[in-house]
Design goal:
mainly alpha
């Protein structure tokens, strides 16, 4: 579970960084730093101790990973303040939306 949550956090951070890269100098200038920063945040969150009452600490790392990925992408791609706000907001919302979409797609449908 630790590796899976790190990979998903890196994907979310990479998307947020890529959004900043599209606003700034270039797509790849934001993608790679955003993915690295998001992966680091996901890995650090996965090291937190888990208890029986709070087993889902990995899912809680996705929104901060998108936020930090947006910051890293906007700094490295010179996206500016507006690009930072847009990419950080998109990363935070994507971190909330992606797990909800995955859970909703796994639920049985009534016919």
């Amino acid at each position: 579970m630790q590796m899976a949550s790190t990979i998903v956090a890196a994907i979310i951070g990479g998307i947020a960084g890529a959004i900043a890269g599209l606003i700034g100098d270039g797509f790849l200038a934001g993608l790679f730093p955003g993915a690295i920063a998001g992966g680091v945040v996901g890995f650090v969150f996965s090291l937190a101790p888990r208890s029986f009452e709070d087993p889902r600490i990995a899912v809680e790392s996705f929104s901060p990973a998108g936020f930090v990925g947006g910051i890293a992408g906007s700094v490295t791609s010179n996206a500016g303040l507006i690009g930072g706000f847009i990419s950080c907001g998109a990363g935070w919302v994507l971190g909330l939306l992606l797990p909800a979409m995955l859970i909703a797609s796994a639920m049985p449908r009534d016919k």
